[in-house]
Design a protein that fits this description.
5% helix, disordered N terminus, six-stranded antiparallel β-barrel
Amino acid sequence: MSDQQTDTTGHLVDSAHVHPDMTGSHGMLLFGDDVLYLSHLPRFHSPHNFQVVLSVRFDDDSSRAFLAFRATGDGGLYTFLPELFPITELDPRNGPRRSSLEGTIFSGHFEREGVPIVTGAVAEVLHVVYFGELVEREPGPDAELSYICFGPAGRLRLVHDITARPSFDHVVTARIVPGTLTDMSGRPLEDDVTAMSFRFAQPAEFARRDLPESRLTSGEIVPGTLRRTPSPSGMHGFSAQIEVAEEIWLEIDELT
């Protein structure tokens, strides 16, 4: 996403500060295994014009109920509908940030015949993985497909980076293929992929057009470039083969 910067904790954020009250019903996709994530389901109209990804931990009772349901379910879609709140309270630059969200966990999409399975669930916000505002701009003719990625290298989560209108919201799981890392000049790297993990979102770019029909698809292996935010090693980016595993979510119509 253009006009981005990192804050002092390593968050990737949009550089334009947000001041208006953005209170609303901010429904979110719920996914993950060892770590649970919430990804705001964005729109281009206020107050929903934000891409936000959180790592969360639910209260014990809600967590047990959700995991028990998921263990007997069909591995389908889950969403979380918080009570009304200003989404800008999650902006890591505008502290004190909101530390928890209370709401209902749904099996399926909460607006599309989803079934509530846990009410009064409290999600503790562990990390703001990503926070950015959607900006109304025309897509460039040569815009490259880009995602924000986070999590361990063997079980990456990638969320499509919405940079222009029209666009699409897309979430997949993937892995970095061991032995395929090169630096930005193409020289092989000996980094241990199994030890890699991204706590905060990193930009990942793919040499194809930024269109829904060019999105990452399950089963493909595609070269990608991860332009890491500043790291102690000084390595600002690397390329690797990315193997796409599962499509978790795709929304096109709401972002046209």
